[in-house]
Design a protein that fits this description.
alpha/beta, OB fold (Dihydrolipoamide Acetyltransferase, E2P), Ribonucleotide Reductase Protein R1, domain 1, 8 helices
């Protein structure tokens, strides 16, 4: 375990407080479960609202009896948000990948997929789209074709069959995820629980233990949780329930085009520098939207999603 650092406590004269390094692996309300470099875990509480930590945060904590107090959150590389009916809340930090798991059946929402990709782009996190249930030939072919615009944007799209999974799918996943911290997202029915249990044997039991430690009980399914995939603790998965709750309200409407690669590719070809790409004459984006009379590289569905999100983000500013 790394040696704790000593920093003077306020009003303590020559005495000092000992701060320890830790990783937040779960949180519920004002409680966090923090893991030490040695692998020990303990409950910690933030000192004031400004030190509120999320899963994936590296923190500095101080011991107090059998628990701890988070004194400092180490500066983050990135931060992900979720949106409820009231406000936008941060829920995961310091990610390398976002694995967006969707399935051939039930049919996935392209709007939800777009939101997840925009959130990843905004924080410069590499997204991986995984399409599950490749054993369902007809539905899989339709879903694969639906993902054509995303393959053109150079997003990695990985075909999977978790239910009938063989070593090939497992090996392909592990090659992508090795040594990285990956947030796993997916709508109900996509196979996210199957994926987590495939890569983290005993994940359900771990979730129960963490829930009990945090005294979150029935709220287990609403908690974001960090799992180590390997014994060396170099590869991790972060499981967060829900998919439709992705928060984008921290993004300004005029930033949106730059976060959608197919839109951004033509956004500099507009007549006006402050073009919204919705109605202006001489717009390079509108001119490249696919239509029955004029084929184009921007799918009509993607352009419609852009318009809907622009309206949503504009409304959230007032």
């Amino acid at each position: 375990m790394a040696k704790p650092s000593r920093t003077p406590a306020k009003g303590a004269g020559t005495s000092a407080r000992i701060l320890h390094d830790g990783l937040v692996i779960a949180s519920h309300g004002r409680h966090c479960l923090v893991e030490t470099p040695a692998g020990d875990r303990l409950i910690c509480h933030p000192r004031g609202k400004k030190s509120q930590a999320v899963v994936g945060d590296r923190v500095r904590w101080q011991a107090s009896e059998d628990e701890g107090t988070i004194e400092e959150v180490v500066p983050r590389r990135n931060l992900f948000y979720r949106q409820d009916e009231i406000r936008t809340k941060s829920f995961a930090a310091n990610l390398d990948h976002v694995l967006i798991l969707i399935a051939a059946e039930p049919e996935f929402s392209e709007h939800q997929l777009a939101r997840a990709l925009i959130a990843a782009e905004a924080e410069r996190i590499t997204p991986i789209i995984a399409l599950n249930k490749s054993d369902l030939v007809g539905p899989f072919e339709r879903a694969w074709n639906k993902l054509a615009p995303y393959r053109r944007m150079h997003h990695g799209v990985l075909p999977l069959s978790l239910k009938a999974s063989g070593e090939a799918d497992h090996a392909s996943l592990m090659k992508l995820l090795a040594g990285k911290s990956t947030l796993v997202l997916g709508p109900s029915g996509a196979g996210k629980s199957t994926l987590i249990n495939l890569l983290v044997p005993g994940a359900s039991a771990l979730t129960g233990e963490i829930s009990q430690a945090l005294n979150s009980g029935k709220h287990t399914t609403t908690s974001t949780t960090w799992y180590w995939v390997d014994e060396a603790r170099t590869t991790s998965l972060i499981d967060s329930p829900g998919f439709q709750e992705f928060g984008l309200n921290h993004i300004a409407p005029m930033q949106l085009a730059g976060l959608m690669p197919d839109i951004a590719e033509h956004a500099n070809d507009c007549k006006f520098y402050n073009c919204t790409h919705l109605h202006e004459p001489g717009c390079g984006v509108i001119a490249n939207v696919d239509s029955p009379t004029k084929p184009g590289p921007i799918s009509a569905t993607r352009y419609r999603i852009y318009g809907e999100l622009f309206a949503e983000l504009s409304q959230s500013r007032y």
